[in-house]
């Protein structure tokens, strides 16, 4: 018992001496028809990184979603998992409506936006998520981490869009603000523009230091800090 308690305490504390980063860069998804899966993920607009084969017994294909540091691989004799058994894979987006519209324009079926009742956001077709309560429509308050949409590949591997605009505290340091793509940066600027308009209403005039205000807003938003008013 004492050993287990010590291990739990150690696991709860962040490492201060780690010298090697651990970067999740590849997720394996099981498919039944490799060429069909390749055509689907290409249709999503994801980047094709590799298509390697060794005779007729082994083949691996890698795709990377736009702006992602993590890729997916699938193929022949890549995994023993049942095709379609990969569920609850999250794609973080800064604009849920834009992400849905992009898939619809590509002819991909995607669910309507939904949010959860409390901390629960699964649907009856998604038992791999906790609970089974789903509320139609995006989160009324449009809270970060609260709005979702789902879609599946031809085998039934399940994906979720999750809209994240403000990170929880501690996820990103204030001096380490970065954007994975031009799209994410543009979305952040639009949110800052709307907030700055409200700021000028409160101050009753034009803010000549709007650039500094924008920068402060975006950095705080990304770091999960209190936003300026």
TrEMBL record:
Residues of the VOC domain: 23-164
Coiled-coil blocks: none
TM annotation in the entry: none
Classification via SUPFAM superfamilies: Glyoxalase/Bleomycin resistance protein/Dihydroxybiphenyl dioxygenase
UniProt entry keywords in alphabetical sequence: Lyase
GO molecular function annotation: lyase activity
One of the Pfam families matching this protein, by short name: Glyoxalase
Name the record gives this protein: Putative enzyme related to lactoylglutathione lyase
Lineage of the species this protein comes from: Bacteria, Pseudomonadati, Pseudomonadota, Alphaproteobacteria, Hyphomicrobiales
């Amino acid at each position: 018992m004492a050993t287990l308690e010590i291990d739990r305490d150690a696991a709860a504390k962040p490492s201060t001496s780690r010298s090697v980063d651990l970067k999740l860069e590849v997720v394996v998804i099981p498919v039944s028809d490799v060429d069909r899966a390749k055509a689907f993920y290409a249709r999503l607009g994801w980047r094709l990184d590799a298509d390697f084969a060794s005779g007729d017994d082994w083949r691996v294909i890698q795709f990377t979603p736009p702006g992602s540091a993590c890729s997916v691989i699938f193929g022949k004799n890549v995994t023993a998992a049942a095709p379609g058994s990969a569920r609850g894979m999250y794609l973080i987006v800064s604009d849920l409506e834009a992400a849905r519209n992009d898939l619809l324009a590509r002819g991909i079926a995607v669910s309507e936006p939904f949010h959860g009742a409390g901390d629960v956001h699964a649907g009856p077709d998604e038992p791999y998520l906790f609970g089974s309560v789903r509320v139609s429509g995006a989160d009324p308050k449009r809270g970060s981490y609260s709005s979702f949409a789902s879609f599946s590949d031809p085998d039934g591997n399940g994906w979720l869009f999750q809209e994240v605009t403000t990170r929880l505290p501690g996820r990103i340091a204030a001096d380490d603000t970065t954007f994975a793509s031009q799209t994410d940066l543009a979305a952040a600027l639009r949110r800052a523009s709307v907030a700055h308009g409200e700021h000028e209403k409160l101050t009753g005039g034009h803010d000549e230091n709007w650039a500094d205000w924008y920068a402060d807003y975006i950095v705080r938003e990304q770091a999960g800090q209190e936003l300026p008013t």
